[in-house]
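[job 4471] stage=fold_predict status=RUNNING
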Amino acid sequence: MSSGRSTTDAKPLAGRIALITGANTGIGRVAALELARRGARVFLACRSEARTRAVIDEIATTTSAQATWLPLDLGDFDAVRRCAD
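[job 4471] inference complete, writing structure tokens
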């Protein structure tokens, strides 16, 4: 019996891009994981690549989505500009 779900329903965010700040802990981490599970390519914008690595690794092992770390310190306007570029 078919569930009635199409491939698009299983990955409703396929082809979409998400940028998440603070993605290495708390709500940001959960949001990054959920968006990746739904098919989005996620960019995790955080200060520490080392602290973000665990989330990127979890996304890689539990989903087929791409996850990329972007260096970002929201207290540094130059860092914000570099991240935006």
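[job 4471] summary: The mean pLDDT is 90.
[job 4471] exit 0
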